Amino acid sequence: MDLTLFTIQLLNGLQLGLLLFLVASGLTLVFGILDFVNLAHASLYMLGAFICASFTLWLGNFVWGVLLALPVTALVGLVVERVVARPLYARDHLDQVLATFGLILVIDTAAQLIWGPAGIAVPLPDWLEGQVQIGAVTLPSFRLLIIGAGLMAAAGLFWLVNYTRLGMLIRAGASNRTMVSALGIDIQSLFALVFALGATLAGLAGMLIAPITEASIGMGNSVIITAFVVIIVGGIGSMKGAFIAALMIGLIDTLGRSFLDDIFKLVMSTEAAETSAPAISAMLIYIIMAAVLAFKPSGLFPPKVR
Amino acid sequence: MTRIATLALLASVASTAVLANEAKIGFVTTLTTGAAVIGNDMKNAVDLAIEHLDGKAGDTTIEVIFGDDGFAPETGKQVTDKLVKQDDVDFVAGYIWSHVLLASRKTVLDADKFLISANAGPSQIAGKLCDPNFFSTSWQNDQTPMAMGEVLNRQGVKSLYVMAPNYAAGKDMVAGVERTFEGEIVGKDLTKWGADAQLDFSAELAKAKASGADGIFVFYPGAAGGAFIRQYDQAGLKDTLPLYSVFTVDALSLPKLEEADFQAVLGSRTTQQWDPTLDNAANQKFVTDFKAKYGTYPSYYAAQSYDAIMLIASAIEAVGGDMDDKDGLRAALKAADFDSVRGEFSFGTNNMPVQDFYLREVVTDDDGTWTTKVVETVYDNAVDPYAADCKMK
Amino acid sequence: MARKILTVAVLAALAVLPPVFYLTGNAFYLDLATRLVILGIAAVSLNLILGFGGMISFGHAAFVGLGAYAVGIPAYHWLYYTAGDWAVSGLAQIPIAVAVTALFALLTGLICLRTRGVYFIMITMAFAQMVYYLIVSIEEYGGDDGLVIDTRSQLPFLDLDDPLQLYGLAYVSLLVAMGLVAMIVKSRFGMVIQGAKGNDERMRTLGFNTYAYRLTAYVISGAMCGYAGALLGNFTTFISPEMMDWTRSGELMFMVILGGAGTVLGPVLGATVFIVLEEVLSSITIHWHLPFGLMLIAVVLFVRGGLMGLFAVLFGGRK
Q1: Residue among A13, A123, A216 whose CB faces B223 most closely
Q2: Which of B203, B233, B235 sits opposite A257 (nearest CB)?
């Protein structure tokens, strides 16, 4: 196992972790503050990717595509909040899981009717197409951009939550909802805002992944479960927990995929290693989640007051 | 002449009475989910075939009923059940996916109907589970990667990195290339597949690059193919790690890649039993009309589906539309007496095609559209490796 | 009273209509009814813990899948290897299915039941996903290609290759499952489970080890669902990991909620409407997920307590 490859895989893991964080942060915000389980959160991730892809092909530039797609995705988030989420805030989690499960079916089918089943490949401007050389490490420049954008979004979110009035309300809302509304804050607008913010973050993640994997129908279903694993491991409602868990899952998943077969080969036959390593690495995140919950039933960083 | 006309008249009078002069074909493919892009292409080809036939095989009207398998074996089986039991079709054709075909097989064969695979070719069905009522207009899974292994040997590739999804067909593909490739396989990744399939291959590509292999062999069907090529391009591997793929670059992914201008795919190599440039009258008509009607090149899925309908039509015509003449239909199917778009081919003992395989290269055609052309013939009249396991004679 | 009439009516319809369809040449509708009744059993089992016990399992499809594989794997060894005739006997396969799923429920339940609420929903799903990937990676049993069951379970006096007899077995099993749940719910054990759903703290103060009670319920539910899986394997004669996908667990949940959680008849009603609707919508359009999803949302938003709730609103007054 050489050091250069290991460094590259660390960076790849970081990139995956940050994308996961973008999806998971919105999920944990909505969950922690609105007490709303949104299975359809990743449908917004998919919609973000498709909307951005359409704008990019139309305008011929990915950056413009993202800038236009962000507010549109936020708008979609607002509509979803108003139509489906709001009537369900007072209901139990079961109703929310089911309604948003239905929403996934609706959005997936609608997306197929609008954009067709083929998916859209998203072109990048030339300056993002190449690779960057740092010492012995070569990395596609776009992946570096994802890392940068992910870190910036995370920093922005921390600033928002910890140092702004809105953030104060969000934190207060997370611990005591009635208290905030007693303070005369329009709790409905606050909730709508939080929901739209979560939608935008998920959409952004979709936009960033689209040039790598294409925008495709059902792309959300692959990420939603992982995002839930992240927020459960991190502790629902905890931004810090989501961040740490996202990076942890991203790193473990990437490193598992890269090195597990080599590690297994030390203790078993090559053939056994080659069949068991992919199986175990696919199960790895679920094993981690089960292990964490076995010892800490409310995740690593359970919010103090609920 | 008059006698024949009289007979035909009598036959048609008789048939109106018993309503026998109609043949029903059930066609199962994927029409929803992201994989619907394949299913739609197949459906288009079937529609075109029916158009070319004028809706008839001889005097017999052909009706095609489409069924959507939703990319899931259980759904595929339910749809097949319905076609067989409720719609009472005479043939069931189609099937993109090995697992859907395996799940649905028993329903069709137990009812003594004919099953024609227009794509899936799992090893079981070519070997142990072969059946006199089953025919394929595609290939057996191992064959295409075996042809690729042969190509790699000819091109002097000494070391190879292998990537495929971790499911049955993915493993078949890897086994296929390993069967014929004589050099060293320096690394192998089987990536997560299924509902939450892995589409970000950063870790694997980094490993492939570090392995220093002469080339990379991949199998990523459907949307994953586009994603793979994209990242292969971004990682800047085109010059150091040439791409050899099977079922990854096709007429479905190329228009999308062209629209996004992913140049890395140009010049990459793939093997197949068919190509739009194959020089025979049936193929030229098929490709020209397909392009005229749908605006894109047909994919190999489309070519195989078109052949499936033509094969069925030839059999119906051979028995004069008598759908109860199972033995006659079986013999007529086995004869493969129709103009296949792949050129001449015959059925082996296990009812899999014995056919040529070609090496294709991704090129730009005269109009600037990205497509493929034949570089060379890899195998002549290849028989699949499981034919020996089939007990039929 | 009204509820009793409805129960009898639904069960009578299920007893009479499908065989009539079959005998009048509509074999496909008997198939549909068989699937419906088997999934009904799975939904009834889920309802025991979800509806009565408040344990929202999002991984019940794993039990269905494991139960089906418990039939398929022995049959596979009988066909391709040297396993004796016991391997295709239903008298061996069904107990294996029940035992394996009960064991799986016990092991995962020990961990899952330490958590609450959404954590419980997600950890049950995580275990189901693990099983899914485990089966996918076992190439011997077909991996994600699945496994064809060439020989159905051999039972004394019954021939499961006859669709009518298979349906009969499934139907009787459904009656037994419903009876069992009704009995459990009325028992002291059932009272504790339902009490723990409402107020776990109080039940514990009263001296009940609710963890043990809930675990027992979880195991019973899992085993019952495994039995449904064994029937499903016999019905489809084909099993694949896709049966345990998380969306399948979601569908089971939907059947329970649609029909009415916490009622004995609800899950069966839910399964019926689900299967019939799926069939009707998918024969109208391939994009049937769209109206189906909309309906799902509408049911959650506007029909509280599911169809049983709706029924109570309409007829409940006329006791």
Answers
A1: A216
A2: B203
Indicate whether C27 pLDDT > 80: yes
In chain C, residues with a C-beta closer than 8 Å to the C-beta of B102 are 142, 145-146, 148, 238
> Exposure of C118 by Cβ count < 10 A (0-12 exposed, 13-18 middle, 19+ buried)?
buried
Query: For B104-148, how does the pLDDT look when each residue is reduced to its tens digit (9 = 90+)?
Result: 998 999 999 999 999 999 888 999 889 999 999 999 999 999 999
Q: In what order do the strands lie in the sheet with B91-94?
A: B56-57, B60-68, B22-29, B91-94, B114-117, B134-136
- Chain A and chain C share a number of CB contacts under 8 A equal to 126
**C262 to each of A95, C47, C61, C93, C152, how far by Cα in Å?**
14, 6, 19, 31, 34
Tell which C residues from 245 to 304 touch A, by Cβ distance under 8 Å. 246-247, 250, 253-254, 257, 261, 287, 289-290, 292-297, 299-301
Predicted local distance difference test score (pLDDT) of residue C316? 63
The ipTM estimated for the assembled molecules is 0.84
Number of domains in chain A: 1
Q: Are C217 and C10 spatial neighbours (Cβ–Cβ below 8 Å)?
A: no
Name residue B364's beta-bridge partners: B370
Rounded to 10 deg, the angle between the C61-80 and C117-137 helix axes is 20
Domains of chain B with CATH codes: 2-139+278-355 (3.40.50.2300), 143-272 (3.40.50.2300)
Q: Please, which contacts does A113-117 make with residues 24 or more away whose CB atoms are closer than 8 Å?
A: A113/C287, A113/C290, A114/A50, A115/A50, A115/A54, A115/A215, A115/A217, A116/B37, A117/A217, A117/B32, A117/B33, A117/B34, A117/B35, A117/B36, A117/B37, A117/B40
Domain at C2-315, CATH class:
mainly alpha
What are the tens digits of pLDDT across the range A83-112?
999 999 888 888 898 899 899 999 999 999
Contact A289 C122 (CB under 8 A): yes
pLDDT-derived band of residue A145, with 50, 70 and 90 as boundaries?
Answer: very high
- Residue position matching structure tokens 């749908």: B294
Best mutation target, B29, B30, B86, B196, to test chain C (most C CBs within 10 A): B86
Does A112 fall in a domain?
A: yes
Closest residue to B32, CB basis, from C35, C145, C287: C287
Query: What's the predicted TM-score (pTM) here?
Result: 0.88
- Chain B neighbors of A206, CB-CB under 8 A: none
